[in-house]
Amino acid sequence: MSLENEIRPLPTARQQSVSDAFAAYCEAVFERRRNSEEDFDEAAYREAMELALARLRSLEEEGLA
Fold first, then answer.
1. Which of the chain's termini has less CB crowding within 10 Å, N or C?
2. What are 5-17's pLDDT values in tens digits?
3. Which residues have CB under 8 Å from 49's CB, separation 6+?
4. Dist CA 34 CA 54 (whole Å)
5. What's this model's pTM, rounded to 2 decimal places?
6. Contact predicate 29/10, CB 8 Å
């Protein structure tokens, strides 16, 4: 089997951009919800966002995201 056919981890630059893009999306949603008329538990949102980011970064380090 040649090296071209093997599954390789994503390059580091790509790994960083996945979590960075997700963090930017979360911040945009956070601001939208915060500025809306709806009830919004900011602390719970931040906690969930941090947990998701930690998991995503862990997967990135393993080359799986």
1. N
2. 676 665 555 545 6
3. 23, 26, 30
4. 23
5. 0.66
6. no
Q: Are 19 and 57 in contact (CB under 8 A)?
A: yes
> Are the beta carbons of 60 and 16 closer than 8 angstroms?
yes
DSSP code at position 35 = T
CA 8/CA 4 separation, integer angstroms: 9
Q: Which two tokens stand for residue 28?
A: 């945009």
For 10, residues 6+ apart whose C-beta sits below 8 A from its C-beta are 18, 60, 63, 65
Element (H or E) spanning 55, and its range?
helix 42-61
As a whole number of Å, the end-to-end CA separation of the chain is 24
* Residue 31: its H or E element: helix 12-34
